[in-house]
Design goal:
Layout lengths: L1 H6 L9 H8 L12 H12 L1 H7 L1 H6 E2 L1 H5 L1 H22 L6 H9 L1 H37 L1 H5 L3 H21 L1 H28 L7 H6 L2 E2 L10 H7 L4 H7 L5 H4 L7 H29 L11 H53 L6 H4 L9 H14 L20 H28 L14 H19 L22 H23 L9 H13 L1
Antiparallel strand pairs: 1-2
Helix pairs in contact: 3-12, 3-17, 3-18, 4-15, 4-17, 4-18, 7-15, 7-17, 7-21, 7-22, 8-9, 8-21, 9-11, 9-18, 9-20, 9-21, 9-23, 11-18, 11-20, 12-17, 12-18, 18-20, 21-22, 21-23
């Protein structure tokens, strides 16, 4: 199809609506368009993965405010994230390309906006792949440890990291094998998440002997962050509670996958737009039910009071095994670990497509290698690059961080929280740039078949404000030992999210100022310019 289109003296006949729209944007149909609208929704739903983020970051919410940090923060933040999703749905309907976020920014703000957006998006996608894969490895380890005391006794961070590398390898292998296989896997993943989450909720309702009260779930609060202060001060509400935002903001992210897979989706202008906002809506609803079920199932300690300390140290695994025993607890962990593997594989797909698209336009060193496709039209080299970088960025997870005591250890997964924070900051800041640029274009923006009408006037500024506020919070220290000049300061406690993201932005600024601005011109067309001009004229006339 691509060859015939290029060879034709004018606009080629027989193009589908998707191919015609893509041609108008300057690209031939290189990738195999085998994804249905449901598959497009499925990949974003799989990457959001309520069975991953809700469980792996439960401690971030619980320790920073207690149950109210979960029961109230989740629905409030979900509304703001849905608004972000609506603004992005409008953009992908107008510009359904694999470059997604980066392409939108380039179109609306020029090469410089596209350059920084693309790199932020790529950093976020690689980090979310790393975070999900490491979370999956952790839950695989927890599942086996629940069923095997000997395996549990030989626990080490090195063992978890090796499992993490295996997860990355398998996810990469599946991505390289076939794009069609990935579409099928994501369809299966949706039902695994729906059925699995429903099963877990029912198990948590029916199996435990006791449940916490509504008062506990919706009003109990405490400060287990390590920072001094009560639970009624200004600092608690505006400094401690926001640390728990990571739970919601990290879980409901990665939905830009619907945009990155738009060149492989049928009826992409509508299907990808719906894929974004629907994946957010259903994940927010299902995730809230799941989180409430987990929180209601928190066991009591020996004194008859809710075991806040045990949950703070052991997370959801402690809740499952203490409330239901090792058999049921291990089964729930198995469902979650399997879902997280689906999620990691989908993250790899999204990150590799963005790498392919950005390389196609010459933005990444070694672009020809990373934009190369296999005979089955899969960017295999890009897949391998994502896997290697994801492994490198997670190396600090090998360092043990204990902010408790030898008798009462409180192991904080600082590296995991840092990687997930990098994912959130990179992805959401990348989202903010085209969202703001679309707002600046106002009525001059050429909307697609799915759009927000005049509602963009209040949606887009709110979306950008939410992103900036949350990003600032996620750059702050997680524990007192990470605060510079604090008595107990040590580098192992440091949240390296701001070091990576701000450091990357500084390097990108230097690179842009000294070199990239002279050669990077934004998205490159892959069809003949004369054909594109003639084709555009015909579309305008029609």
């Amino acid at each position: 199809m691509a060859e015939a289109f290029e060879a034709a003296p004018g606009p080629a006949t027989g193009l589908s609506d998707d191919e015609a729209h893509l041609a108008k944007l300057g690209y031939r149909q290189d990738l195999h368009r085998s994804w249905s609208g449901f598959s497009n929704f499925a990949i974003s739903f799989s990457i959001i993965s309520i069975l991953a983020g809700c469980f792996t970051n439960y401690g971030a919410g619980f320790n920073n405010g207690g149950p109210i940090s979960i029961s109230w923060s989740w629905p409030i933040l979900s509304v703001f994230i849905l608004i972000i999703g609506f603004t992005m749905s409008e953009l992908v309907s107008a510009y359904p390309t694999s470059g997604g976020i980066y392409w939108w920014a380039s179109k609306l703000g020029g090469p410089k906006a596209g350059f920084f957006t693309g790199w932020l998006n790529l950093i976020g996608l690689v980090a979310v792949t790393a975070g999900v894969a490491y979370g999956c490895a952790t839950f695989i380890d927890l599942t086996i440890s629940t069923w095997s005391s000997s395996y549990e006794s030989s626990y080490s961070l090195t063992r978890v990291f090796i499992t993490f590398l295996i997860v990355l390898f398998l996810a990469g292998l599946l991505n390289i094998f076939s794009g069609h296989l990935m579409a099928l896997m994501n369809n299966v993943s949706v039902w695994w998440h729906v059925v699995g989450a429903s099963a877990i909720v029912l198990i948590l309702v029916l199996v435990p002997d006791q449940h916490q009260s509504f008062s506990y779930v919706f009003s109990h609060r405490f400060n287990n962050s390590g920072f001094n202060g009560g639970t009624s001060s200004f600092g608690f509400w505006f400094a401690i509670i926001p640390f728990g935002f990571l739970l919601t903001q990290y879980t409901i992210t990665g939905f830009d996958a619907s945009a990155h897979l738009s060149e492989e989706t049928s009826s992409a202008a509508k299907a990808a737009a719906k894929g974004i906002w629907r994946s957010i809506f259903y994940s927010a609803l299902g995730g809230y039910i799941l989180l409430l079920a987990v929180t209601f199932a928190i066991p009591n300690a020996s004194n008859g009071q809710p075991d806040d300390a045990g949950v703070g140290a052991g997370g959801v695994a402690y809740i499952f095994t203490q409330a239901m025993g090792t058999n049921w607890g291990g089964f729930v962990l198995f469902i979650s670990a399997s879902a997280q593997f689906f999620c990691a594989t989908s993250c790899m797909t999204s990150a590799s497509r963005m790498t392919f698209a950005f390389s196609r336009d010459g933005a990444i060193p070694g672009s020809k290698r990373w934009s190369a496709l296999t005979p089955s039209r899969v960017p295999a080299n890009a897949v391998m690059l994502v896997g290697v970088v994801a492994a490198i960025v997670t190396l600090p997870a090998l360092i043990k961080v204990n902010i408790g005591t030898a008798d009462s250890p409180l192991i904080v997964p600082v590296a995991f929280y840092a990687v997930t924070s990098i994912a959130v900051i990179g992805l959401y800041l990348a989202f903010a740039i085209p969202i703001w640029l679309r707002f600046r274009h106002g009525e001059n923006f050429d909307v697609g078949s799915w759009n927000n009408g005049s509602k963009y006037k209040w949606m887009n500024p709110i979306a950008v404000a939410e992103i900036i506020i949350v990003s600032i919070y996620l750059m702050l220290p997680f524990v007192p030992g990470a605060v510079p000049f604090h008595d107990g300061f040590a580098w192992k406690f440091v949240n390296y999210a701001p070091i990576v993201t701000l450091g990357a932005l500084l390097l990108l600024f230097i690179w842009w100022s000294t070199s990239a601005k002279h050669w990077f011109t934004g998205p490159k067309h892959t069809i003949d310019e004369a054909v594109l001009a003639a084709f555009d004229d015909k579309l305008t006339a029609d």
